Amino acid sequence: MSADPHVQALLEELRHRDPDEWPLPTFLLNAKGELVWANRRAREYLNLPAAFTPTPFPTFCQPQSTCEQLLGQARKAECGDFSEGKEITLHTAANDSQHARIFCAPLKATDTGEILGFYGFLVDKTKEHELREHLEALTLDVGQVLHATSDAAVATVRALRPTLEFLARQKNTHLSALLSDEGQVAYAWLQQDAQRLAKILQQLVDESEKDEYKRQALLSQQWDLLRAQITKFRNPAMADQKAIEVVKQPGFLRLAIATVRDTLRRAKPQHLPRERVRAVEHACDELELSTILAPLISTYHSLMLLERPLDALRDFVTTQVRPTEPAEDLDLAKVLTEAAQELREFANSRQIEIKISLICTTARVRAPHRELRRALMNVIHNAIKYTRPRTRGRPSWVTVRLTCPPHCGSLYAPCAEIMVENWGTGIPEDELEQGDIYKLGYRGRLATNITAKGTGIGLTDTRHVLRRLGGEIVITSRPAADLYPKSDPRYYHQPFLTKVFIYLPTLT
What we know:
With 508 residues, this protein is α+β, with helices and mostly antiparallel strands. The protein has 15 helices and 14 strands. It has three domains: 5-124, Beta-Lactamase (2-Layer Sandwich); 158-299, no CATH class; 325-505, Histidine kinase-like ATPase, C-terminal domain (Heat Shock Protein 90, 2-Layer Sandwich). It has a five-stranded antiparallel sheet. Strands 9-11-12-14-13 form a five-stranded mixed sheet. It has a two-stranded antiparallel sheet with strand order 6-7. A hairpin with a 6-residue loop joins strand 4 (97-108) and strand 5 (115-124).
């Protein structure tokens, strides 16, 4: 097969430019799609012999070889231009896979426009492809772990509730009272019961010091050990001049209770008044119940706070590998109600009422159902989580309202406005103005008073979903009452009214 003079001229030009030093695998095909030239990097990539020569332009590709597959892919790519490459997969003799992106364009005669051949280059994508596969596998694994963790959290919450109800009955109170203030009631009982035990135990020690027969019930070092426990019960926040965190006090007191019980069991029979010993044992039982109840309530609240972020994080992580959910014609009021209902139990656990106001019931939107509901749940969950409990008067609340105003934010087409309002922790102005609250992984400065930390993806995910739907999110946060000026350090300690506005274009 003789070479076309134009192709021959191109080859001569290529030789003068030392193409073997070019960083990319570069090749030249004739009009039939046969490989007639390749630089050093292309020869290495296609496993061609180093002595490869373009004369007299035979094809050097063996049947079923990587090189032959490349030619087939190049022909399929039709070598239109260099603007977009085509990703191809090549299988080597060792049954491994190579992945590359091929870029090529036709070589035309200047006088007739006849296609004389094709020239192009390859960009190896094998490592990138393998990395993408590993990342997808890891993403799915993380999603499965998050799913299992979320299920475990839900199961634990369901198991804890009847246990807490039973313990509440032992305390002659209702579970709703225990769950208020995120367990502060139970920790207050803990302090009260510890003080009561200290008082009763002190009475036993004082009586024994006045009566030789009673004092003989225990050794002197055993009486000293009981006196040491009295000190612990009177001030469970301190031990050996060191402060003890609130969450560690139940365990600290349980050890003290065990010491008291073990010491009294060693007392000589008949030496101590039975009524006084029973009073100590009963006080130990009451305090021990509180040491169990207080951390259980904190755990219950933490799990309730954690359930929704885990679900949101799982959805966020697996979005890139999950099949794309098709958009649907959705009843917005129905989706909003579903989102609020999903969070009813969480709201009830925190003694918060969700008030839904559907002023507009005809709004319909075009959106993937799962994504829209997730975005709405993210906002409502945040509102519940950052709502402050009230100790008197009406219960805390979160308002969810759907309207269809003439325009929504910058949307002047038919639209719907969803407003979610809560009374509680505020958001600093700079975090709103600079958009920090939308940054992936960011948690606000004032969020540190929440029992369970979030993931910092809720608002990021919500804004991402809304923007894809052509919508917007706007947040305002102002003091519920002007108790302190901005210059006052207590400014952000007062309750704030935070409103989240979600704007969505509706179907006409």
